[in-house]
């Protein structure tokens, strides 16, 4: 799936024809938190904006750069074509994202044949993340094993990243990471912390992470390092969910990690 690693600095968007939209980042004058006027989901840091003061129009980069004329294909739905829509198909109040399970209230990728929907930012989640030699694969559904973050399996019908530690499978629900990120986003709305700070503040409490693993596994050598790897992977996923390619690329910079999808 195409990732916009070098997005244009300025664009025209038909949803806001009065002004061109400029790409800004937390370090380039952007306030940290916003609600995307396209998908209606939270955002942090990088965005396209008209800079119209209190009447500012803001879009996540994936929402701003969505192509209405080009079908999107996702590896988790082979043979399915998703088309960008400016609003969810009817019944609007019942449309949910088939990645995270949350309501789709604005811009959405819709598959007419399969009646499937994806938030634009969820649609950009990488198929695989490789961090410090550990592979985390994106899965459409998971088994009944508990999530390594929430310790529950109620969200097993939605997307998760799966890996292994000492032969034991580990699942990380995308929805759980989104929940944690939203709490930090709401707190940041009060003090306007930087977009990168939102990503860092959103990371799950490592003292409680992966408690779903058997105690014997958590006592093994390398477990603390694996927790640090999970923390980095979570920061990557949160950055993508927030539509923030700047924070995403910062999270994976360095010799230990890279993203491919």
TrEMBL record:
SUPFAM superfamilies in alphabetical order: Cysteine-rich domain (SSF57889)
TM spans (from-to): 226-253
Record's keyword annotation contains Ribosomal protein: no
Keywords: Membrane, Repeat, Transmembrane, Transmembrane helix
Domain spans labelled DC1: 15-64
Keyword set includes Zinc: no
InterPro entries referenced in this protein's UniProt entry, alphabetically: C1-like_sf, DC1
This protein's name: DC1 domain-containing protein
UniProt source species: Setaria italica
Gene: LOC111257743
């Amino acid at each position: 799936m195409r990732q916009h690693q070098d997005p244009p600095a300025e664009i025209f968007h038909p949803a806001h024809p009065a002004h061109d939209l400029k790409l800004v980042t937390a370090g380039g004058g952007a306030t940290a938190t916003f609600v995307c006027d396209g998908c209606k989901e939270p955002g942090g840091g990088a965005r396209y904006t008209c800079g119209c003061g209190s009447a500012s129009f803001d879009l996540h980069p994936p929402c701003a750069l969505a192509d209405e004329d080009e079908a999107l294909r996702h590896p988790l739905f082979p043979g399915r074509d998703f088309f960008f829509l400016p609003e969810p198909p009817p019944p609007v109040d019942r449309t949910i994202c088939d990645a995270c399970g949350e309501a789709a209230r604005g811009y959405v990728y819709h598959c007419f044949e399969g009646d499937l929907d994806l938030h634009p930012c969820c649609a950009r989640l990488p198929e695989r993340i490789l961090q410090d030699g550990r592979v985390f694969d994106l899965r459409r559904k998971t088994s009944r094993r508990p999530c390594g973050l929430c310790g529950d399996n109620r969200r097993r019908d939605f997307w998760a990243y799966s890996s292994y530690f000492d032969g034991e499978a580990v699942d990380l629900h995308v929805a759980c990471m989104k929940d944690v990120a939203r709490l930090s986003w709401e707190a940041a709305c009060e003090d306007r912390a930087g977009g990168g700070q939102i990503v860092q503040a959103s990371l799950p409490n490592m003292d409680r992470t992966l408690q779903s693993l058997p105690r014997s596994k958590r006592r093994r050598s390398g477990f603390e390092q694996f927790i640090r790897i999970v923390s980095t992977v979570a920061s990557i996923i949160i950055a993508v969910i927030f539509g923030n390619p700047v924070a995403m690329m910062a999270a994976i910079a360095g010799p230990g990690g890279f993203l491919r999808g």
